[in-house]
Amino acid sequence: MEEKLNKLKTSLDKGIYKNISFNDEMQDVTIAKLRNIKSKNKRRYKPIFASIVAIAVAILLFYSFDFSSLHRNSANIGNEVESKDTLEDQSVNYLIVFSREDKPSILLININNKIKEAKYISVPNKLYINNVLLDNPITEEAIEKAFSVKITNTFVLDDNSLGDFIEKNRGIQVNNDFDFEYGQSVFKEGIITFQKGQELVDFTSMRVLDPRGSRGRDARVVSVLEELFKQKEFYSDILKKEITEFDKVLLSNNNIKLEDNIVFEEQYIDGVYSEKINDENLEELKNSFGRREN
Asked: Within 13 A of 206's CA, how many CA atoms are on the CB side?
């Protein structure tokens, strides 16, 4: 502004007012008024500018908060899902014991809900692990200690009760590998139907006539269990349990496969028959049936 005043004074000095002397006080007053006018203009626009800035900042903060919140929520959801997948067991183990006088059938069944498959192994009645004898390890504690796996449920079943169950319900059909006679029953190779309870008892009891011995008997027991697991009444009437997502794997007509990668070796100590499992097979068992961290 002072530059403009100087130019104005120079112009006047060269024009008709060149011989006229300006009052210095008047000049100062004039400059002060002009400065006041400019200052007022600045103050007039300051609130408008401040409002515009405030609105712009508010908009930026809103969108910043909204997107950051959305990002945090998405991250939290992802963490919750990941945590749930990590903590949730994908498989369970059922211990099935067929109680009978002539050596019980002891079956460890693993049900994997992720891949929708079930598998089993036969547990020997006399088992050596690390030179320690586990004689008839039919309890949860004994199996968990022997194999370092977690057992979710233990079911002690009686074949006579199962025979009564199939008579009251619709019976079952199973595949028989070879002809044999046992007790009061005759079984032909192929698909056979059980309508009487005694037929089921005889079919699941025979051991000595089977070339595979106890393993063959256990395989027939499993073939019966496969059919029973497909009936909802079996869970409520025999197992006395609610149907879970894992049980639905068994309900869906899936077979229970033998885990044949795990091998037990025969041995005789002082003329007494028993079986043992070496470190390699024991490690395979732990990995296959869900290692329990001690």
From this structure: 22
Give tens-digit pLDDT for 114-167: 999 999 999 998 888 877 888 877 788 989 988 999 999 999 999 999 999 999
Distance CA 217, CA 204 (A): 6
Q: Please state the φ and ψ torsions of residue 145, each to the nearest 5 degrees.
A: -70, -40
Residues 6+ apart with CB under 8 A from 282: 129, 147
Taking alpha carbons only, the member of 262, 240, 239, 243 closest to residue 119 is 262
For residue 290, give every residue at least 6 positions away whose Cβ sits within 8 Å of its Cβ, in sequence order, or none. Answer: 89, 91, 93, 110, 149, 150
On the 0-12 / 13-18 / 19+ scale of CB atoms within 10 A, 11 is exposed
Rounded to whole angstroms, how far apart are CA atoms 294 and 101?
A: 34
pLDDT score at 132: 81
